Amino acid sequence: MRILLAGATGTLGSFLHKALSARGHDVVSVARSGGDLRYDITDPAQVDALYGAVGPLDAVVSAAGHVPFKPVTAMTPDDYRSAFHGKVLSQIELVRQGLPHVAARGSFTLITGILAREPIPTGSAASMANAAVEAFVRAAAIEIAPQRINAVSPNVFTESLPGYGNLFPGMGSVDLADVAQAYIRSVEGAQTGQVYPL
């Protein structure tokens, strides 16, 4: 399959690039500061330009989305807007604008996270954004068939525990290899409207 991978230079994106390529897929990577193509998916105009440049696809995979972590009392309206814009609207645009460019039975796989179902202190923006992405996936699935859409909702990555583990006390972690398997299930499988919790 020919797969567009957004957020390709991050921890997850870099791992997914290797995992998908190892399965024989032609992966076209995109990120703001690296990859095969350099576009900012938080800008709808750049998403349009991206699809114009990349050509026909079989799947779109997203590992992108930034949200601020602060106590609710320290959050501002701009912080919540930033989270919604950076993780929700950006991925919605990948789907909305990608529909004409993805094969009739192709797929979209988005990223959410454990905070949609297991909140932590300072994580209200992430919880909001993750839950919104998951709701969008379920809603879009009933409209875009036979194209498919799913989301992967992982715990904190085991590989990221040194930097982020203190934010997730007692919550465990998930290896990037297991997260990659969920993406592969979404891309190569037949399900749609699913959220894969890890």
TrEMBL record:
<comment type="similarity">
    <text>Belongs to the short-chain dehydrogenases/reductases (SDR) family.</text>
</comment>
<dbReference type="InterPro" id="IPR036291">
    <property type="entry name" value="NAD(P)-bd_dom_sf"/>
</dbReference>
<keyword id="KW-0560">Oxidoreductase</keyword>
<dbReference type="InterPro" id="IPR051122">
    <property type="entry name" value="SDR_DHRS6-like"/>
</dbReference>
<dbReference type="InterPro" id="IPR002347">
    <property type="entry name" value="SDR_fam"/>
</dbReference>
<protein>
    <submittedName>
        <fullName>Short chain dehydrogenase</fullName>
    </submittedName>
</protein>
<dbReference type="Pfam" id="PF13561">
    <property type="entry name" value="adh_short_C2"/>
</dbReference>
